Input
Amino acid sequence: MDIAKIVQRSWEITKTHHYMWWLGILALFTQGAGLNMFSVNDVSEKKLDINSFTSACLMSAFDRLQNYSVEHVRLITLITLTLLLICIVIMYISYCARAGLILAANDTEEKLNNRSKNYFLKGAAFGWRLFGL
Output
């Protein structure tokens, strides 16, 4: 494997296909919507002292939370559904951008000279697989 040829080919693709940059940036910025932002390592790094909480303090906080959720059930439901819808839209955009980027890279490597800038729309055919359609 010749590293110099790989780097040279990568540079040629980077210079000539600017739309691939935009697909990559779009895929990068929508990556966090995959709902995998939390890991077990995050918990183990934080030293949480459970003994510092008293049971009366926890019960008081739980009672206030329960009263608030009962009084504002419609607001909480609306906010939850809105956030879920936003998350689904961002995941769809991310999948479309990633699929479009892969299609563009494959077309470039096969030297199809397809400089079409609508690879995002071509990737939309694969973005619907998020919903099982």
